[in-house]
Structure formats: C-alpha cells, structure tokens
C-alpha cells in the first residue's frame, strides 16, 4: 500500500479517468493530459511521485472549485443546492492512485451489509435483500417489525476529519498511508463558481468532497464504524430484539452509500438502543440524521406502537 509509485501506475490512472470529468480551477482537463502525455507525462509523474515521497501537497494542487447543483426546481436557500467539488486533474491522479491501493483491502474490512464501491460486490444485492426484508409489512399475522430509513443531513459535507483519522487507524492502515489521506482531505481551499467564474477563496474544517475519488471509499469506512458500533451495543446489551429471521445472520443494518436502513423487532427497548447508537455516532462523526426526512416503517402487526415509536425516535412515519 505504501510501495513507491511507478510511472506505469501514474499513466494507467491518467488514462483511466473519463475525458468528460470537469476541470478544476486551473482549467486543464484530463483529455488535455492524455493528448499531450508524450510531452507532459514525465513531469506529471515526477509531481505525483514527489507527493508520495514528501507527504506534502502544494496548495495549488488542492484548490477546488465548487459548483452548486440545484436539488429542486426553484431553489430558495443554500440547502436546496448540492455542492460538487471540481478538483484539479493532478490531484485526482494522486487521489486515484491511493484509491486503487485502498480498494484491495476493503472487501476484507467491510461487512456484507455494505456493497456500494466494494470490489466484487453489487449494490443491487442489498436492494434485493431490502425488498425481501420489507415484504409482508401489511400482513397483521406476522411478527412485529420495525425498519428505519436514516437520511443523513449533508452526509459527505459534515464528516469530522478526526473521525476519519481514527477510523483508518482502527482498521489498521499503515501510518504513512493514513498521513497521505489526511494531507489530501484536510488541506483543500475552495472557490465557488458563480455565473461561470470563481468567487472567494477559503479553507474547510470538515467534510469529504463530492468529486474527490477518495471520498466514497472513506465514507464506506465511516459507515463501517456505524455498523461496528451497532454490533458492539447489541452484544453488550444482550436484550436486543432482531427482526424476524435476521438473528442467525446477525443482520440489522443495510447501507447504500449515504442511505441507511435499520431493521429490528418493533419493541421499545430495541428501538431506544438503535436511536441511542445513531445519536452517539452523530456526536462522534458529525453525521446527524435529518429528522424531517428520516422515516420509521412499522408492520401492521405493530400498528398500536406507532405513536410510541415516533415519540421515542423523533422521526417521521413512513408508508410502504
């Protein structure tokens, strides 16, 4: 994972990036680097290798242009926009080199409840499993069940950097590799694209950039921490009630990138425990559930618990 970066490795990464990717503040596209590789390839390779040998990233390489993409037809506030980070191509090369090395380890580190971005896994497997777990909720003769669809508020943008650091150390990544990652995610400066031109120049204090190749994989590790915390509290508690037919699999969570589904039996103690873990995770990671968008689904056999569950969680009632 920390072996020296070769010229072939850099070239492979460059030609693996899609030509349509938006350029960063410097305006250079990956198509330019591909076309001019015979001229600029050696200097690009040296620049990338210099980062991995020194562990330091030039401010110019990590300057980022934020494009605000509307999430609704008529946006009224900043909350109605999704910030997409346009990183420089040189930074993306560095980032993808680390991603390619990191992906090899994820299959062993990440529980099967997460399938997004994991080599050899398909997110459709979790979709099919979720459909199976949510089937029969309208049948009153089946056991009482509860599912929570957790919507994380500004998920990528609010991750605490110290939590990412602690997660990578806990998962056993080499100190040098961790330092490379932290140099990449903690040193960006931002400008916002307004009317086609960059405005402002400011640093960040938290968050992972939507547009950085590293971000999805680091977020997977953060979500794995949530899964580990839930499992720890389940085993410590001893009275957690798994959803019907899930106990043998030890299954209570499915993750779809930044969308989370939690499953359990519909009973007070278990729901309180899951709500507590969600809040504990939020306090540590910076990732808070959005109460107005997070939903609880109760089977018909647990309909009499609806008001109690909503009061315990503060979430909305969902309908299948």
Automatic annotation (TrEMBL):
Any Pfam family hit: RVT_1
Source superkingdom: Eukaryota
InterPro entries: DNA/RNA_pol_sf, Retrotransposon-Effector_Assoc, Rev_trsase/Diguanyl_cyclase, RT_dom
Chain ranges of the Reverse transcriptase domain: 50-317
Protein name per its UniProtKB record: Mitochondrial protein
Originating species: Sesamum angolense
